[in-house]
Design goal:
This protein is α+β, with helices and mostly antiparallel strands and 299 residues long. It is 39% helix and 15% strand.
């Protein structure tokens, strides 16, 4: 177990192993045969009314259920865990959760902001002792020098120059990101919000971290300009949160560097994946300074 790394920082690569582990857990718990719903960092399976998450965790599977309990008791809307449905098998963590159905309603961003404010109000001592709370400086996709060493040959000179200018302008982020540090969700973006009939539910706390509050604001500050989001999303989120960080220098730095990380990760994925390569090219047009650069897709 490592508290210097987030709960999940490595992608599930071997879907065959993930499926085998999910099937073993489902049989143990008397569930229907798992069906793969999607794969991101984790492999997500459906077993009737239950969802199984299978991932390469840095802490025991049961600690994610413990975290959900803490968050729920503090008024943070999260997916309900299925008691007893946790297992660590073949180096993978398997956890069972109630199936939440998206109501296809517009996200109540003010309610999301209020929920994030409740997370930020937590003390680190409120969290399960076994659940990691690292600084985001440990996130491997924020090690820009290492990423560029591996993939710079796949980026044209003009785009690379734009990316490097942004990295250099934000070099001080590592020493600043702990300023006024709070417990952060770590990855607040529209893909980690489910809108139900009862309001929004926050998902995916794999990147829970200890950082400046702007860490959880940053993506939404560029959601309209870079990711095609509605222009009022961040203002609504900030109203629910209780204050706006739109003019905060450190938050703006984090937002710019987050977009660098998002681009570099697509470039890396595009080396072997055609769809990722197409999206990487969309993003690189922005870094070239192309005035007609399109907005980005989430995947």
């Amino acid at each position: 177990m490592s508290h210097d790394r987030p709960y999940v920082d490595q992608r599930v690569i071997d879907l065959e192993s993930a499926g085998r582990v999910a099937a073993s857990a489902a049989a143990r718990w008397g569930l229907a045969e798992p069906t793969l719903l999607r794969r991101g960092m984790n492999a997500i399976f459906e077993c009737g009314g239950e969802v199984l998450r299978v991932g390469r965790a840095t802490a025991p599977a049961s600690s994610s259920h413990e975290l959900a309990g803490v968050l729920s008791r503090h008024g943070v809307p999260v997916v309900a865990p299925i008691d007893g449905h946790t297992a660590d098998l073949e180096g993978l963590a398997v956890t069972g959760w109630e199936r939440v159905h998206d109501a296809a309603l517009p996200v109540d961003w003010a309610a999301v902001g209020a929920a994030v404010a409740r997370i930020h109000a937590l003390a680190p001592s409120d969290l399960p002792a076994r659940y990691p709370l690292p600084s985001p400086v440990t996130f491997p996709w924020w090690d820009f020098d290492a990423l560029l060493d591996a993939i710079s040959e796949h980026i044209d000179a003009e785009a690379l120059a734009g990316i490097l200018r942004t990295i250099e302008a934000g070099r001080g982020w590592r020493s600043e990101v702990g300023a006024g540090a709070v417990v952060c969700h770590g990855d607040v973006h529209p893909g980690n919000v489910l809108m139900t009939d009862d309001g929004p539910v926050l998902i995916d706390f794999d990147l829970l971290c200890h950082a400046t509050p702007g860490w959880d604001h940053a993506m939404l500050t560029t959601y309209a300009t870079r990711w095609g989001g509605a222009p009022d999303v961040y203002a609504s989120f900030a109203a629910g949160y209780g204050r706006s960080l739109a003019d905060d220098r450190l938050t703006a730095t984090i937002a710019s560097l987050r977009n660098v990380a998002a681009t570099l990760m697509r470039v890396r994925a595009g080396i072997t994946d055609d769809a990722a390569r197409v999206e990487a090219e969309r993003r690189l047009r922005f870094w070239r300074g192309d005035p007609g650069a399109p907005q980005w897709n989430a995947q």
